[in-house]
Amino acid sequence: MKRFAAVAAGLLLAGMPLASSADIDIGGLFNSIKQAFKPATQDEEIAIGRDAAATLLGASKPIDQAAVQDYVNKVGLWIALQSDRPDLPWHFAVVDSDDIDAFAAPGGFVFVTRGLLLHLHSEAELAGVLGHEISHVVLKHHLNALQKAARMDLAGQAAKVGLASKGYDSDLDQELMDKVSNATRNLYSKGLDKDDELAADRMGVVLATRAGYDPYGLLAVLQTLEAADPKSSKMQLLMATHPAPADRIAALSAAMGAGNIDRFGKQPDVQDRFEDVMKELVATAKSKAPEASTKK
Q1: Is residue 131 in some structural domain?
Q2: Highest mean pLDDT range out of 152-156, 209-213, 229-233?
Q3: What percent of the chain has pLDDT over 90?
Q4: Does 30 reside within a domain?
Q5: What are the backbone dihedrals phi and psi of residue 111, each rounded to the nearest 5 degrees, phi first?
Q6: What is the dihedral of CA 158, 163, 169, 175, to 10 degrees?
Q7: How many domains does the chain have?
């Protein structure tokens, strides 16, 4: 996705220095490879997530509507407290983008676009969306994907260092930097694995249900996405990085049926409170609508 394209090489390698073609430290490089197989500490995870969040907010700023931001943070924090990682410094933000999307970064950073928020109908639906993104963080999906990419890049560096030490070096530094940059760009343009997305759907429902919401909120959101025009520019990022909504609906419905979620079906969807808070956002969206759309 374009919002992640500029994530720095330091995010990918998390402090693992590149070898210099002029002064190659083979031992240091292989120590970096060993380090890449070790789980990141929570502090390291938060630092990685903070860098990613800064990059994301550089592309799409948060909306300037304090009441909406405060509301989404309160709902998000309540749901995060139901997870296995309530101690993370969770941060939630609504970003000023027409795209219909939501995304997360390691360490507890969760974002939902204005475009998606305007397509939701209740607090239970918001809880389902936030629960899905919180689950990515809890299960360390992005962190694991970054570390996997780092291992592959470091192995490639080791091979290049071997060639360089035999006199076959050709612009090694630039090639390694390009490799790291391309790996980061590729990782976020293709999105997470399908299994990660489906796992986040399942856990997202569990977290929203634990928080006291109608468990069918996320399923309702997926149905809205299924009905949307997949060729719309607002849907392109989501469609490029997630399984098709119909596939997610089928998988989630089966999981919810097997989990006997129906017994929680009478939990509230909190529609009135959601609509009250969203009035300002809806009014702003209407004021930004193209003037031509009002002409006959």
Answers
A1: yes
A2: 209-213
A3: 55
A4: no
A5: -130, 140
A6: -40
A7: 1
